Amino acid sequence: MAVQSKPAPLPSWGLAVAGSTGAVLANALVYPLDIVKTRLQVQVKQSPGADSAEPNYASTWDAITKIVAEDGIKGLYAGINGSLLGVASTNFAYFYWYSVVRELYFRSRKVSAPPSTAVELALGAVAGAVAQLCTIPVAVVTTRQQTQSKHERKGLKDTAREVINSEDGVFGLWRGLKASLVLVVNPAITYGAYERLKGVLYPGKARLTPGEAFLLGALSKSLATIVTQPLIVAKVGLQSKPPPQRHGKPFQGFVEVMQFIIKHEGLLGLFKGIGPQILKGLLVQGILMMTKERYIRQLRSQQLAKTAALASKAKAAVPLTTK
Fold first, then answer.
1. In CATH, what number does 12-42+56-299 get?
2. At 55, is the secondary structure helix, strand, or coil?
3. Where is the chain membrane-spanning (predicted)?
4. Distance CA 194, CA 130 (A)
């Protein structure tokens, strides 16, 4: 009886394409939630009866209805081109470097056993840091587009030019870099938890069904979001235009954003927008991991088929010998 050979590990680019494809599909499907959570996170709570030109949203549904009333349905998709570009580049870079650093770790240790939770988090953090350095300008421009009113809204190039001219020059495109580097713990927690939960809930199972991958992705992302929400809010505050109370003066760091929020809204203000943030993260991560596992399965099937075809061709090319 022939023994089925274990499929060779996928190349880093294959995992990167799988991850970025799933991320783009997932984010496109739930993009209105991205707009809503960003608007909720940058707004400053107003006292009852206060007169302000800035819209104020009481809840996720209130934000949706007010955005549609002001801009129509297309208002829920403001900045989507830049956002999907950022999602594709960030996730491609993340999955590529995550695969590379994981492979380097196994080679250096000369072991095949799964790494510990601490090591898994560290590997994810390194990959996330490299990815952020490369892709944060797109995130800055997208956040600006998402928080602009209908009359202020510009394209990707014009928004980027506005950031460069109005703030710190070209370095303005890297606003929030420190917060972003701290936030690499979010994908690190997400994928570290994903690997841990996979081992606990589905021990020894090499291939997950789409439903199982969705469940693991949703659970791991929800956990990571709850832990890092204050930093997420601070990062969005740094990358958006300053609130009216700042009179056009940008924040200098994420600690300053947190202090401003606590002063005006209390500690709970650091968790504003967490509802749509978790819902968006749950759906995105679930769809992403489900799509990624599906794509990886297809790549492995193609890999095995190619290997079998080459083996068959080689066998046919061997001449028969006679005694």
1. 1.50.40.10
2. coil
3. 12-31, 76-98, 118-141
4. 21
Task: Give, in order, the Cα–Cα distances in Å from 113 to each of 91, 309, 314.
Answer: 26, 31, 34
Two tokens at 262?
């606590």
Which pLDDT tens digit goes with each residue over 173-205?
Answer: 888 787 778 777 777 788 778 888 888 888 888
Query: CB-based contacts of 154: which residues, under 8 Å, 6+ apart?
Result: 145, 148, 162
- Which tokens in the block code for residue 278? 């978790």
For the chain, the 3-state helix, strand and coil shares in percent, each to the nearest 5, are 75, 0, 25
Domain assignments of the chain as residue spans, ordered by start: 12-42+56-299
Amino acid at 258: M
pTM equals: 0.63
What is the distance between the alpha carbons of residues 162 and 251, in angstroms, rounded to a whole number?
17
In contact, 176 and 132? CB cutoff 8 Å: no
Report the candidate in 35, 64, 4 with the shortest Cα–Cα distance to residue 143. Answer: 35
Classify the phi-psi angles of 45: left when phi > 0, otherwise alpha if psi is within -120 to 50, otherwise beta. Answer: beta
75-95 pLDDT, tens digit per residue, is: 899 888 888 888 888 888 888
How many other C-beta atoms lie within 10 A of the C-beta of residue 278? 20
